């Protein structure tokens, strides 16, 4: 396995994002539509936070709703805003951070995704799933 490979080789570049002004119903729909678990919250290209599907589960009974259903119980979601639920203090990496460094960080922390930010602008996201796929290919 090669060392020193930048995370830009495995990160997701086609981003699904939210604005701090979006609502949690919109977030729920995006999680389900795109089958993802983490969404960067941005203003323009500037990262403001990270919302995970787990964050929604903590405030709702979203896990009781069928994953493929479009219906969302909006009562709880209307009680909170995205900035109230998202993680504000986001750990970011740059596109030249090595895959090894990202793997080390994620293995020691209690989160599963990090935005990739260059010159203050979001360029992608790297998740534990991206890492697992990379390592599986490497051991073939």
Automatic annotation (TrEMBL):
Residues 11-67, 86-140 form the CBS domain. The keyword Cell cycle does not apply. Keywords: CBS domain. The keyword Ribosomal protein does not apply. It comes from the Bacteria. This is CBS domain-containing protein.
């Amino acid at each position: 396995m090669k060392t020193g490979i930048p995370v830009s080789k495995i990160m997701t570049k086609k981003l699904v994002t939210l604005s701090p002004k979006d609502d949690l119903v919109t977030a729920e729909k995006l999680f389900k539509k795109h089958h993802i678990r983490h969404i960067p919250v941005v203003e323009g290209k500037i990262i403001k936070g990270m919302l995970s599907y787990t964050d929604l589960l903590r405030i709702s009974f979203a896990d009781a709703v069928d994953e493929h259903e479009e219906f969302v119980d909006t009562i709880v979601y209307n009680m909170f805003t995205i900035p109230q639920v998202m993680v504000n203090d986001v750990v970011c990496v740059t596109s030249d951070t090595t895959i090894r460094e990202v793997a080390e960080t994620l293995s020691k922390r209690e989160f599963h995704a990090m935005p990739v930010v260059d010159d203050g602008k979001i360029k992608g996201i790297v998740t534990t799933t991206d890492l697992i796929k990379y390592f599986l290919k490497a051991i073939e």
